UniProtKB/TrEMBL annotation:
InterPro entries: Beta-barrel_TonB_sf, Plug_dom, Plug_dom_sf, TonB-dep_OMP_SusC/RagA, TonB-dep_OMP_SusC/RagA_CS, TonB-dep_rcpt-like
Source organism per UniProt: Sphingobacterium yanglingense
Family stated for the protein in its record: Belongs to the TonB-dependent receptor family.
Membrane topology: Multi-pass membrane protein
Keywords assigned: Cell outer membrane, Membrane, Transmembrane, Transmembrane beta strand, Transport
Residue span, TonB-dependent receptor plug domain: 96-202
Record's subcellular location: Cell outer membrane
Pfam family, one: Plug
Name of the protein described by the UniProt record: TonB-linked SusC/RagA family outer membrane protein
Length: 1054
């Protein structure tokens, strides 16, 4: 007895300390090691011990007291590819019979990333998906592309499917806690069944559901995330001392003289006002110098960080119950999120209730019902620029100057110049106008101005499944979705925004009597929108194995859909919340502005729009599998819509696909021990993309500028041939598994051609038709792009030991595309000098491009920028910018052509650690720099000012041009668009780190708890490597960057 106990002790505590053992008679629950010893070494009874450990198959040993020694050998586990199913939104198929290209993100992966936005679950996990920015916001639907951009000016976002029906709402209303899996359909065979809406790929989201014969299970999730205030010191802003020197130079050269003497003198900074006082003899030089020297020591970012930004806190709570029996399956959930944003007075809340129930009405009939209520409320400071350093407005296109003070040393709130000079405003207030001072912190902390945006969604999705005979099912689906959006902006009567508007329209009679056409009081702006979507679908499914070797899977159906959007807006002046009353105003009369800068109408905020789109479709799908090794598939769909021209609807040309699959590893002649799976796939077909144009004539109603009479402009002429954009895609795939699936994944190559893309097309100018800009163009199916790429998904089991396991997942994508046909391209170079995210198509190049004027350095004589004209160094900027486009230097695309992620998961006992590295290569961006004229007019300067050319020889150390006055606008435009500012956007970043600890069940059993998982999550960890030598962030180069976020959470199951 003693010997046996000693051996067990050695085995349990030294050899396998993380071994889990279950004793028969304990209801299958793991027990402690001391209990194992007592049970084994106790009474003369027969016991069953089940041994389990990471990386090994479970083993059950039958023992009795008469045995002295135990020999337990655990067999290493063979890691097989997960036999999952693939949901296309119409059908659920075993992945082994799917010919198309898809990727699945399951619940286990979703649990390892704590984030409010469900689409963040795809970031770095699915090959071919590229987000516009690597940091997904929780409040906004992120922009992403699947296998590159497939259009030019139309919608480039994928189609979202929620529980088998197209989802037209706000994707941020869907809570990740309710999601079971997300499937991404990437090629024509996988997505063409969705027809004219699937050209950008399809994302299929399946929510959780109850399970048959499953006891009720209650789960509770909670998390708290913290992110510190943004780091404003990294912004490339001119120093206060440099900006003061710049202003002093301009003052001495008379730059401000015209601004100071005009009838409506514009606001000036404290330095300029001090220099005016000095010039007018109102203060002496010592006083002026003392004032200015004090301002040199101030950095506005200190006050901005103290008063305008705050630490971000995100709270998430969720509870659900699921279960079922032979007659009923159910899943019920409630979720609540509360966010305090990193800008003061900004917050958002999200609440949702979801019910998924399935009723077995008989042996052949099943009813499923999904019901959802969701609501999201965003509350922001108004105006929104008040708590944002980069957009903080001081009127007339001016921003916070570097030495602005928001509060005095004693904490008293200080006023800032805004719009007009303080002397002008003081004179106006003496005449009876409202207080015209602007004190930012009063606006933030003492006024009630705010903008509240509330989105509410109601969704009802019932389906009826009838199985008349084996292998045949009839399905009827219906979905009603209603989203109501209400935005209410309350502008407090005491806010500067309202006081400034009232004063601007103030009228002074010849006798000096002041009247206010805009009544003194609050201003309430409301915008309300409603989207009602209805979808109905009936389909017949056939699935049956014939004899032993044949399997047939077929589907036939039809679908109808209507989506109606109604938006209307209103504005109430002199609004009083008590009584809900307002004062009518005269919108017709043009009033002279008080500052004599012109005249205008009182802002009119009343309007209404309505859009209705309808689709009617019929479709079919057929798949055949022979011996489980060979599969062929085909699908076709015809779409008709009120968006298309009559000729397109009459032709009824289908979008279709076909595909094949061969499981080579199942061949009798293929016997290789180290290859567990080897399958070839190939698909070809067409899907579509519905653009923003319509086939009927559309007009825009407005009022004439001078007469205020009603007018109408033809925005788009009729086009009976208007059709959807068509996407042709060829895909080859190789699925593999080696070394008992310790190495597994897929490799795919695709080639695509996107035709009939909507773009500007010329109209015969003699027709008299044109848009509001006066150009004789309309949107027609006239452009073509092509592309190709490679997707690699690789999963490895690096180490599998009883104590320790290490697994890796590699996602690697290559994507190239270019414009093949485009009928409205410009020929001048300056047309293609754009921002990093602008679309300016040019045949033979990607949709997003980075061009630059060829750079010849700075002139050693005067520090002015130089380029090339006709192969010679030149400073004739106008000619360079208007030269042919071929004279530009092309660097590459603005979107990465190589991108992906590396995820590592380490497990040690009950601890699990996952960290994700993301990377992007092959793209470029233009960094920001100095514009002297812009700095003078906007008060916003760049740190490159300190690095400018100042004397001969500086051209060897810098590319920043000299400061020359009067400003040379063409020289600045050339420099800002030149190759000198082009940088590589390549990077490797640590995206996030996740850590969890699963509390051992034996510790929870006495409390009635099934499982408890404690979680930690850190995201936005920053860059490990940047290709550009300046260390610039390619996405937040000179803007506020999201901070590191730290999250603690738990998952509790009863």
């Amino acid at each position: 007895m003693f010997c046996r106990k000693a051996i067990i002790l050695l085995f349990l505590f030294i050899i396998l300390p993380f071994l889990i053992i279950t004793v028969s008679g304990q209801e299958g629950s793991p027990v402690s090691k001391s209990e194992i010893i007592d049970n084994v070494g106790g009474r003369d009874t027969v016991k069953n011990l089940e041994f389990s450990a990471i990386g090994y198959e479970n083993r059950t040993i039958r023992i009795q007291d008469s045995e002295k020694y135990l020999t337990v050998q655990l067999v290493p586990k063979v890691y097989s590819l997960e036999e999952t199913t693939v949901s296309t939104g119409y059908q659920i198929k075993p992945r082994e019979r799917v010919t198309g290209s898809f990727e699945l993100v399951g619940r286990s992966q979703i649990d390892r990333r704590i984030h409010q936005n469900v689409l963040e679950q795809l970031n770095g996990r699915v090959a071919s998906i590229r987000f516009d920015v690597p940091n997904v916001s929780s409040n906004v639907t992120p922009k992403m592309n699947i296998r590159g951009r497939n259009t030019i000016f139309s919608n480039d976002q994928p189609l979202y499917i929620l529980d088998n029906m197209a989802y037209d709402g706000d994707i941020t209303l869907i809570n990740s806690n309710d999601i079971e899996s997300i499937t991404v359909l990437k090629d024509a065979a996988a997505s063409s069944i969705w027809g004219a809406r699937a050209g950008n790929g399809v994302v299929v989201i399946r929510t959780k559901a109850g399970k048959e014969n499953d006891r009720p299970t209650v789960s509770f999730n909670s998390s708290l995330a913290y992110a510190p205030k943004p780091d404003l010191s990294r912004l490339k802003r001119i120093s206060s001392s440099d900006f003061i020197d710049f202003e002093t130079m301009l003052f001495n050269k008379g730059y401000y003289d015209s601004q100071l003497t005009r009838p409506y003198p514009v606001a000036q900074t404290p330095v300029v006002e001090t220099l005016v006082l000095l010039r007018n003899g109102l203060i002496d030089a010592q006083t002026a110098s003392s004032r200015i020297d004090r301002l040199r020591t101030i950095d506005v970012r200190d006050d901005v960080e103290r008063y305008l930004y705050t630490n971000k806190l995100v709270q998430q709570y969720g509870i659900n119950i699921r279960g079922g029996n032979s007659a009923l399956r159910y899943f019920l959930s409630a979720n609540y999120d509360h966010n305090k944003e990193d800008k003061v007075k900004n917050s958002n809340n999200r609440f949702s209730i979801r019910s998924n129930t399935s009723y077995q009405l008989g042996k052949k009939l099943e009813l499923t019902s999904n019901t959802v209520f969701s609501q999201k409320t965003l509350t922001n400071l108004y105006p929104s620029t008040l708590n944002d350093l980069t957009s903080f407005s001081l009127g007339s296109g001016k921003f916070l100057y570097p030495y602005a003070e928001l509060a005095a040393e004693d904490g008293a709130y200080l006023s800032l110049p805004n719009g007009l000079r303080d002397t002008f405003k003081e004179s106006a207030m003496e005449k009876g106008l409202l207080d015209w001072t602007f004190t930012p912190l009063d606006e933030i902390y003492h006024n009630t101005s705010s903008a509240t945006n509330k989105s509410t969604e109601y969704l009802f999705n019932p389906s009826l499944l009838y199985r008349p005979i084996e292998g045949v099912s009839l399905v009827a689906n219906y979905q009603y979705q209603k989203q109501v959006g209400n935005q209410q902006t309350l502008r407090d009567r005491n806010s500067y925004d309202v006081r400034n508007l009232i004063n601007r329209f103030a009228q002074v009679s010849a006798t000096g009597v002041v009247s206010f056409p805009i009544p003194v009081g609050h201003i309430l702006q409301t915008e309300a929108g409603e989207q009602r979507s209805q979808q109905g679908r009936v389909q017949a499914n056939f699935e049956r194995s014939v004899a032993t070797n044949h399997h047939i899977d077929a589907m036939l159906g039809m679908e109808v859909r209507e989506n109606r959007i109604i938006d209307h807006s209103n504005i109430a002046y002199g609004y009083a919340e008590r009584g809900l009353v307002s004062v009518p105003v005269d919108y017709v009369t043009r009033y002279k502005y008080y500052d004599a800068s012109g005249s205008g109408n009182i802002p009119y905020g009343v309007g209404m729009t309505s859009t209705t789109t309808r689709f009617f479709s019929y479709f079919g799908n057929l798949a055949y599998t022979f011996k489980g090794r060979y599969s062929l598939s085909g699908s076709a769909r015809v779409d008709q819509s009120n968006l298309f021209g009559v000729k397109t609807n009459n032709r009824k040309v289908p979008l279709w696909s076909m595909g094949g699959l061969w499981h080579i590893h199942q061949e009798d002649w293929f016997k290789t021990d180290w290859i567990d799976k080897l399958s070839l796939r190939s698909t070809f077909g067409y899907s579509g993309n519905v653009g923003d144009a319509v086939g009927i004539t559309t007009i825009t109603l407005s009022n004439a500028y001078l007469t205020n009479a009603a007018r109408a402009d033809v925005q788009n002429p009729p086009n009976e041939s208007l059709r959807w954009e068509k996407n042709r895609l060829l895909n080859f795939g190789l699925d593999f598994g080696f070394l008992k699936n310790r190495l597994s994944g897929s490799l795919e190559y695709y080639a695509k051609r996107n035709t009939d893309l909507l773009s500007n097309s010329d109209i015969d100018p003699t027709t008299g038709l044109g848009n509001l800009s006066g150009k004789s163009v309309f949107l027609g199916n006239v452009a073509t792009t092509t592309g190709n790429g490679v997707d690699l998904t690789l999963n490895t089991v690096n180490i599998r030991q009883p104590k320790f396991a290490w697994e890796s997942a590699i996602v690697f994508s290559v994507n190239h595309s270019k414009v093949q046909e485009y009928y409205s391209q410009s020929t001048t170079a300056q047309s293609y000098i754009n921002s990093n995210n602008s679309v300016t198509p040019l045949i033979g190049y990607p949709v997003y491009t980075v061009f630059g004027y060829q750079w010849a350095g700075l002139d050693p004589e005067n520090g002015m920028p130089r380029g090339y004209l006709d192969g010679e160094i030149s400073n004739e900027y106008s000619k360079i910018m208007n030269a042919p486009v071929g004279t530009l230097a092309y660097y590459g695309p603005a979107k990465a052509t190589v991108f992906g992620a590396l995820t590592n998961t380490l497990r040690y006992g009950d601890l699990s650690l996952t960290f994700n590295l993301g990377y992007r290569f092959g793209s470029y961006f233009k960094r920001s720099s100095i514009s002297y004229a812009m700095m003078a007019t906007s008060w916003a300067g760049h740190a490159d000012y300190a690095d400018r050319w100042q004397q001969s020889g500086d051209e060897k150390r810098t590319d920043v041009p000299a400061l020359v006055y009067p400003f040379n606008g063409n020289a600045t435009s050339f420099y800002i668009g030149s190759s000198a500012l082009v940088e590589k956007a390549d990077y490797i970043a640590l995206h996030d780190v996740y850590l969890d600890y699963s509390v051992r069940p034996e510790l929870l059993k006495r409390y009635g708890i099934k499982s408890l998982v404690l979680k930690g999550y850190v995201s936005n960890l920053g860059y490990l490597w940047l290709a550009n030598s300046r260390g610039l962030d390619p996405f937040y180069e000179n803007t506020v960057r999201p901070q590191k976020s730290f999250t603690l959470g738990l998952n509790l199951t009863f």
